[in-house]
Amino acid sequence: MKRTAIVLEKNLNPWQKANVSVILMGQMALLADNLFDKQKILDKDENLHSAIMYSTVLLEANSVTQIVNLVTNLKNEFKNLQYVLFSRKWQSLNNEFETYRQIVSNSSLEELEPVWIAVFGEDEEVRLATKKFSLLK
């Protein structure tokens, strides 16, 4: 079984948490080709339903530092897990993707202030990597 964990910095507004959770899941769907089934799921009335194949959990981080530490752990100890970040820098750039790309390419992780991360992989590994975080309230 697989699992996705989205970790959000706890001091964000509810609309920010919802907005970026959707963005991260979209990006993760591109990276993890088996996150969603390729076949459509239709009900009897032919309405299309989501074909997500694995559980997703939303978790809270106490700080940006905690998210940076998670990235370090993922790189060093959980190399089989996939992850994608969203930073405070992107949050301030509305529809300025090329500017964002340039900023990311020329900045360290700490400078970018990651406030969201999505992690995908084997259920047990994701749980172990994210065990320090609490469920989103």
Task: Describe the model.
- The structure is a single chain.
- The chain has 137 residues and is an alpha+beta fold.
- The protein has 6 helices and 7 strands; from the N terminus they run βαβββαβαααβαβ.
- The strands form 2 sheets. A 5-stranded mixed β-sheet has the order 5-6-1-4-7, sandwiched between helices. Strands 2-3 form a two-stranded antiparallel ribbon.
- The longest helix has 18 residues, at 14-31.
Labels describing this entry:
single chain, 137 residues, alpha+beta, 5-stranded mixed beta sheet, two-stranded antiparallel sheet, 26% strand
Number of helices: 6
Element order: H for helix, E for strand: EHEEEHEHHHEHE
Report strand %: 25-35%
- In percent, how helical is the residue content? 40-55%
